[in-house]
Amino acid sequence: MAQHSCTAAGGWPVAKNARWRRAGGGLQLLLFLLPPCSTPCLGQHKSKSLANSLPSKAQPGAEMPASGRGLCRAVAASPFPAWRRAHTEAGGGLKPEYDAVVIGAGHNGLVAAAYLQRLGVNTAVFERRHVIGGAAVTEEIVPGFKFSRASYLLSLLRPQIYTDLELKKHGLRLHLRNPYSFTPMLEEVAGSKVPRSLLLGTDMAENQKQIAQFSRKDAQVFPRYEEFMHRLALAIDPLLDAAPVDMVAFQRGSLLQRIKSLSTLKPLLKAGRILGAHLPEYYEVLTAPISKVLDQWFESEPLKATLATDAVIGAMTSPRTPGSGYVLLHHVMGGLEGMQGAWGYVQGGMGALSDAIASSATTHGASIFTEKTVVKVQVNSEGCVQGVVLEDGTEVRSKVVLSNTSPQITFLKLTPQEWLPEKFLEKISQLDTRSPVTKINVAVDRLPSFLAAPNAPRGHPLPHHQCSIHLNCEDTLFLHQAFEDAMDGLPSHRPMIELCIPSALDPTLAPSGCHVVSLFTQYTPYTLAGGKAWDERERDAYADRVFDCIEVYAPGFKDSVVGRDILTPPDLERIFGLPGGNIFHCAMSLDQLYFARPVPLHSGYRCPLQGLYLCGSGAHPGGGVMGAAGRNAAHAAFRDLKSK
Predict the structure, then answer these.
(1) What residue stretch is flagged as signal peptide (predicted)?
(2) Architecture of the domain spanning 97-136+150-173+348-431+582-643
(3) 20 to 30 Å CA-CA from 169: which of 126, 207, 212, 417?
(4) Residue 16 pLDDT > 70, yes or no?
């Protein structure tokens, strides 16, 4: 058996030709390679410890336990998280009643629980999976390799959440990226020259030098473009931390309610003051195709295509789709540690962020339960929420329920339909949830070596390895063609690939000498042409196509692969509860934002059923690891509890 230089946890060699593949609900090890588990873990997962539990039985929407004893051994070796210790030490058994129940331990649900508990509201969180975090999770799919299995970068988390929840105190550590973007070209070059590439970071002078390879005019314009987008991001910022304008109060409320609702106009007025006379120009950015906006600024395709990736990532849209500019703005309005627009990796993977939020919540007394599936929201005879019912039949009473699940699951599956207006249910059922995303997590035994930036002699990470590496992104036409394939029901022939290597900055994620690679790829339709489903053959065929594309830019990549985890839109839906595989719960299109998220007249986290709140990405201000929906919903629920 061919061996390579990296070793898994415990020092056992990982076979180079081993392949992990998704099959049905779990993973199948096609070649056993580790010795038997040192602890009898298969019979002990009922303890519900996050560190050593797997789903105990097959359920609709649940994952089957991974086969192969080596995986159990690797999972059992995971550290016991601080939030679990705090919960256990506080005597965290299930109680029959709480002040508030949160459905789902995604990051927004955890944020909501942490805020409520700090406000003195006794809160319990129920999570369907064996691990907390929702899409912000770290999982050891291949022994020794820790993947941010779904979301993989951090920037959008609201600054006050870091401070209010004391996340650094609870273990959060970040690795800021600089440079942050790398787009290699495929070019024929003579002699010892290498193809060009576009490397962007925080140094504007260096950015201009990089852009000048393709256009001196664009290099001169780029600082003005950045300032233009920065001003728009500043204008949008105050809208994120408050509920949208209360249109119901304006239309139907009493005089007192209408006067009170005037306060909800403040963020809009502040945004207007920031934009000032330039408002028409900014309006175009939000409503026009991003290709039109970028064409007005720049002439070089590599720069335009690189910027356009932020306008389409996670969205079933083309750069030529009207309104794609807002998605770009959504991805540039964040920041880390005071650096506007900065993106970074969480040490230990995205699950470490969820663990820090959970630790903050449990330290103050919140209870978090894994493998506890909520199947129903209970309603009393007066039409008010009175708790939830778990899958095993347990009833848990509460004064309010906050749902971190999608609007579709919350209102169409968990809530008794007779308590919701027919028109409301119809609008929820019509939400656009189309997703283009297939996420592929890859374990490799060495760093990719790109033709445009060959590796150092000893294979140590170079600056571009920490970046978002954009492949098949030299021209906006390539992105549009990839989109058109999906519109025909076909996985893109030349998919857009965002390749990230978090282990380039965080060596704790992989065995020595090895790395974890995140491939965020699109476009892949939920249902294939002819009604075909995504079976294992289709998954592997698409992943092979993605790997073939990477191989062209970085020869030797395919030979470096130790294992892979392929998550198509149906897989993302089944495992993480993302409707249609949509990472935002529903599309971030203009007709599903602000006043209209998730539907018009119900954008303030409350719904037609008293005591039920939406606190996930399907609520304002939308998706991304932001936490704003959880924080805002918690405050809405707290205000209502105080008024009772």
Answers:
(1) 1-43
(2) 3-Layer(bba) Sandwich (3.50)
(3) 126
(4) no
